[in-house]
Design goal:
Length: about 375
């Protein structure tokens, strides 16, 4: 049997993509806010029902731009249980990360935020990790009391809705990534959704070197970078967008099979999905606790032997990476320190078959010590 991959990109029909890019050879416009980028922006705005949207070359640079455009200074409370991009963006923008703890949603816990606020705190910058929303209501209540900006790293959360609203409608700014391995991709790509429409002009400046164009000459207003989405990326986004709903539907079905089949296995704990949230099922994380009989790392290794690829996201907190760990950043990461050792992400993507999911579940049941014992005939 062929190895079951941990993840696979959602790709459109080859012919559809070729058809979409053909006009680029007629217009000669490959980048710089061309027709396709503008159309992709409109389609996304319509799809998400959000007016304020801007597109970028990737998610990471759009987060840096978001932080710079708000002209923030001081400390930012964030979660260390994330892809390193979140922390890098904060530090690259001249801000000081303060690492809070996570709760059972894998996201920043509101209690830990309050205990870390000082008179230097300017913002909360935190992910919806695995596409699972953080506790938006509590976070925004705290932000209001202490007058903090809220920026969400929604890189993994495209397509997640709360009470029927896109997750991009919350906070001051939300960043999304359209990188190849996300649930929805434009090869690479980034998007900011935001509340204050005056930010649009800032984002346009920052993603194009800070240049303003006058009648006869140009000028530079801010220290911008180059973070423009190009036409080939937008074309991929345009042909992939109509496929997104079905991709999520297939993933949801897989998640349901996982939940059903894993629920009786001692020590294997899927996330507790809430009814008012439409998840995008970007990942399928489980917590492997002691009762399972072998550790998360041993399970990862075993599954590999059985031809099943899984991912240990995130087996290191960002504040423990060598660049960050000796810089004396404040951290309060007791539960995160534990979560990082017990979390495993099972394969989930539209092309994964039900048979493969069942094989994965049967294997998890078989290799856990406690369960193997329990399942022996009496
Ligand atoms: C993928 C990802 C990013 C970076 O997005 P890119 O588009 O690859 O730059 C940032 N944060 C998180 C949590 C991610 O998963």
């Amino acid at each position: 049997m062929e190895m079951i991959k941990a993840t696979r990109p959602a790709m459109p029909d080859y012919g559809e993509y070729v058809k979409e890019i053909a006009s680029i050879w007629e217009t000669g416009v490959m980048t710089n806010n061309g027709d396709k980028v503008r159309r992709f922006r409109e389609l996304l705005s319509e799809y998400l029902q959000i007016k304020n949207i801007d597109l970028f070359v990737n998610g990471h640079s759009s987060m840096v731009i978001a932080l710079q455009a708000l002209q923030l200074e001081g400390e930012v409370i964030t979660s260390p249980f994330t892809f390193v991009s979140t922390t890098n963006a904060i530090v690259q923008s001249g801000l000081t990360p303060v690492f809070g703890d996570v709760d059972d949603s894998y996201n920043l816990s509101p209690e830990s935020i309050e205990s870390l606020i000082t008179d230097k705190t300017c913002a909360i910058v935190t992910p919806h990790i695995f596409g699972i929303p953080c506790d938006i209501e509590s976070i925004e209540r705290i932000a209001e009391i202490y007058d903090l900006k809220v920026l969400y790293d929604g890189a993994q959360a495209f397509g997640t809705n709360i009470n029927g609203n896109s997750i991009g409608r919350y906070g001051d700014i939300t960043m999304f990534s359209f990188h190849a391995i996300k649930v929805f991709n434009s090869i690479e790509g980034g998007m900011l959704t935001y509340r204050d429409e005056s930010l649009h002009r800032q984002f346009e400046l920052y993603r194009n070197f800070g240049i303003t164009y006058g009648e006869s000459s140009s000028d530079v207003e801010v220290v911008g970078m180059n973070a423009k989405m190009n036409e080939f990326q937008a074309a991929m986004g345009i042909v992939n967008l109509p496929l997104h709903k079905n991709e999520v539907k297939k993933r949801k079905r897989i998640a349901q099979i996982y939940c059903e089949r894993l629920k009786d296995i001692t020590g294997i704990n899927p996330y507790d999905y809430k009814l008012n949230i439409d998840y995008n099922y970007a990942y399928f994380p489980i917590k492997v606790t002691e009762e399972y009989g072998i550790t998360r790392n041993e399970l990862w290794e075993k599954l590999k032997e059985y031809g099943i690829g899984t991912r240990k996201l995130y087996d290191k907190l960002t504040c423990d990476y060598c660049y960050y760990k000796d810089r004396n950043y404040v951290r309060k990461t007791k539960y995160a320190d534990k979560i990082k050792d017990i979390t495993l992400d099972l394969p989930i993507y539209g092309t994964l078959t039900e048979k493969e999911v069942e094989y994965i579940c049967d294997t998890i049941k078989k290799v856990g010590k406690a369960n193997a014992f329990r399942n022996k005939p009496a």
